[in-house]
Amino acid sequence: MLDLFTVLNKGGLVLWQHAFTSLSGGPVEALIKNVLIEERSGTDTYFKDTYALKWTFANELDLVFVVAYQKILQLSYIDELLETVKRLFIDTFKDTVVADQGIYGDYSPFDDMFSKVLLSLEQKHSSNRARVPRKFEDTKKFGSTLKGSQAPANNTSFSASTTTSVLTVDDDEITKNIKALKLQASPRGPGKGGRKQGPRNTNSTPNSTTPEKKKSQKQMRTWDGQIAKGEMEALDYSGGGNSDSVDQDMVKAQHLDESKLGTKNQQGIYEVQDVDIVDDDDEVDDKDETDITQQQQQSSGTGVFSFLKSITGQREMTADTLDPVLATMKDMMINKNVAKEIADRLCESVKSSLIGKKLGSFERVSAVVRTSMESALKRILTPKTSLDILRDIEQAKSEKRPYVITFIGVNGVGKSTNLSKVCFWLLQNNAKVLIAACDTFRSGAVEQLRVHARNLRALQTSGGGVVELFERGYGKDSAGIAKDAITYAGANNFDVVLIDTAGRMQDNEPLMRALSKLVSVNNPDKIIFVGEALVGNEAVDQLTKFNNALKDFSGLQNPRHIDGMILTKFDTIDDKVGAALTMTYITGQPIYFVGCGQTYLDLKNLRVSHIVQSLLRN
Ligand code: GDP
Description:
Helix 8 (240-256) runs parallel beside helix 16, helix 9 packs antiparallel against helix 11 (319-335) and helix 17 (478-491) runs parallel beside helix 18 (509-522). A hairpin with a 4-residue loop joins strand 4 (51-58) and strand 5. This protein has three domains: 2-128, Beta-Lactamase (2-Layer Sandwich), CATH 3.30.450; 282-381, SRP54, nucleotide-binding domain (Four Helix Bundle (Hemerythrin (Met), subunit A), Up-down Bundle); 389-616, Rossmann fold (3-Layer(aba) Sandwich), CATH 3.40.50.300. With 618 residues, the chain is of the alpha/beta class. It is elongated. The protein is built from 21 helices and 15 strands. The chain has an eight-stranded mixed sheet with strand order 10-9-11-8-12-13-14-15, sandwiched between helices. The chain has a five-stranded antiparallel sheet with strand order 2-1-5-4-3, with helices on both faces. It binds guanosine-5'-diphosphate. Residues 237, 246, 409, 411-418, 503, 568-569, 571-572, 595-598, 602 line the site of guanosine-5'-diphosphate.
């Protein structure tokens, strides 16, 4: 049994809907926000609370057809229902939809048509499932009887095909059924409106059951959850004189390179610099455009016919015309270090939003795909929450409590170093900061932070900033140390607590449980995932498993998740900024800063436009 069927425009406006019950928790709104806007529509089904939602696009009219039902139900007719309703709706109302001008008609006559489609499909699929014996009237034998020979060969009811494959959405069958429905709906018969809809390409839906390329599985780097001794040593940057030398470099560099200092804005707030990763030469890459166009021509046929097609301005984008362009774009993204799985999903999503759309005169598929990809990237990367940590700190201050940030991530990515850079930024803004040394696991971790705190104090020549280290040595429960640190900070009027945690591999369950405990016991204001900008496909695994651990091991009804990221070692990647996209796509959370080197000044802002331009540049 369905809960809702709704037809929306791509701006989320409901044009027609049939609700079978009142829905709680806004599943359709969640679908729009989390899937359609965030370019995750390449996926098959979206689950929200107890609901499952499926959808299909009619890009030629900028419409989305959505069906919602209880996820425990196995409804085999959903894909067919979506396709059939879409076809019927378009066929009946396409003249009343002027999407680009926001002009729509009255779709209430669709109520009746929809009910008939649904009823027929429910009957068809329930009879298929139950394998109900056919009525005598439906058998060949009946045709040879006197009564049977007098019966009409074809009635106009919706055909409940006897196909055995209940999941197959057959184009011809849908067209046949739509014709039958139109005959039923119109007392004047098929002449009404005079328009007939030819079979359409059903690939426009991610839910389509037409055979599609199977999404390739990500080749994951294997981590066994344990770090070999050699690796551990390599990751241990704090032991012996190592941490001192690195950290002394940071102090020296700070004095030497004032060009890296941020600036104070009009409100007197110290802001870090923006990353500069885009060349001045911002021209569209002609070579790429030419390549793409050539590929298109090869796939869709060259010569007079395609020339004529191109000037008629009536070309509809199909999977065949889009695939080569998207394949080139996908390669480009993977070259920029976007995880393959994410590049796949994103291209699939852009494809599903373009199939069926008409190209204007002289408009090239490559240009349309590029524009569509650009706006998709902007939507994904634009932060959905405020990035203003300083304002949040002020808010916590007014509540007479310290603001708590926890830094998490795998080993050696730069958690302690970048925590210290964040501390430097806070000190420049006169904050009183307590660093909590909660990596009680790796030898040298506490000493490393001690050196950072000492350096930061030494650099703090002006303003009211204060930094102190809260440490309890090794081998103790890090959740307890964090709790004590927060209590201490509250009692001593610290504005901010920065919690350093032990690096851990995402598959190491005991350590992930400990992290989840630290988070659920202390409920920090922000959980910042620190990840390397160099990471490729591995980012998906890391973020998914960290988020899952925070959820699964918390024992809380409303578990926490990663609130944002710091991307480190950005100075080592040239323009291969793909990790920024991968991480934002996976978490839906923003990148607060990027680390661009080993000094306290090497913390920068990453602008959305920078990432987008960089990703789309060959
Ligand atoms: P943790 O184990 O995650 O705490 O990592 P550390 O903070 O100890 O950093 C590991 C290494 O990465 C150190 O050598 C840092 O100097 C280096 N590192 C951290 N951030 C950056 C960065 O943004 N750029 C570069 N080039 N190196 C960095």
